[in-house]
Amino acid sequence: MTLLDVRNLTVELPTAAGWIRPVNDISLQLAPAESLGLVGESGSGKTMLALALMGLLPPGARVSGTAVLERGESNARNLAQMNEKEWRSVRGREIAMIFQEPMTSLNPVMRIGAQIEEAISTHEPALSKSQLRSRILDALRQASVPEPETRAEQFPHQLSGGLRQRAMISMAIAARPNLLIADEPTTALDVTVQKQILELLDRLRRELKLGLLFITHDLGVVAQVADRIAVMYAGRIVEQGPVAEVLRAPRHPYTQGLLAASPSLEKRKLRPIPGTVPQLTALPPGCAFEPRCGLRRAECTARVPELRKATESHAARCVLV
Predict the structure, then answer these.
(1) Which positions of the chain have pLDDT values less than 50?
(2) Distance of CA 271 to the CA centre of its chain
(3) CATH number of the domain that 266 lies in?
(4) How high is the pLDDT of residue 23?
(5) For the chain, does the N or the C end have fewer beta carbons within 10 angstroms?
(6) Which H, E and C letters describe 210-249, residue by residue?
(7) pLDDT of residue 100
(8) Does the residue 196 lie in any domain?
(9) Which pTM does this prediction carry?
(10) Are 30 and 2 spatial neighbours (Cβ–Cβ below 8 Å)?
């Protein structure tokens, strides 16, 4: 069964230099209780894809393609075609998002419990005060927040960074969504707390049968939490497949470059990828990675390569595959 089926999703944004495509012809699938890691440098389009799936794109954005969210037998929604009224019934209830920086995402003048209550009562207004209180504490306990009764009465500034992120996770799961999007949820956390948050998300995914779309630039994090991986570059997916297979034998030069530039326990020199991500207003005519690629061929400049199958479950957008 597929929970989320994205086909040829494209997002266009107006700029002074013309229309750009931060999300360009993206196709991916996600099953219930499955975790998909979305990886790439800053500016590759990861967060913009998440905002498209949450209906939070900036004004003036144009969306084409489909993003079908399954809601049971013979019941599905195309997220790419919904209006704001329809989004209000879906956002938080069927799809929830954990944002990158909890201190700017949480309301600084509202108690944690009140913010979780708002996330629940928006979709279930008929719940009584006692039922709401029970759901708030349940959400905090599920997110492994210690002393939930005390934490519910506190303000965000009274919590540590790790507890603020757990409070954000509590808000995200409080209305019992089917799909959870985590946008770099371990940024600015120390290594110990980062590990705890990753283990928490993995446990919630399995226990609540959540589809988890995990966005990060850290391949080490993906290896811990993801079943499959999709690598993005300049708005396109350039490689995808089972996480162990992709990390063990990457087929796209960009993925190979990311691995070579990632720290490991082995004593070896890190090799940065030369150059920078191209501006979306000045993409090369063929493969967007071609100007930075040490394996480029003449045909790389002719047209954008198709995703080619390396194995039955592993594909890369490269002429060398």
Answers:
(1) none
(2) 26
(3) 3.40.50.300
(4) 97
(5) N
(6) CEEEEEECCHHHHHHHCCEEEEEECCEEEEEEEHHHHHHC
(7) 80
(8) yes
(9) 0.93
(10) yes
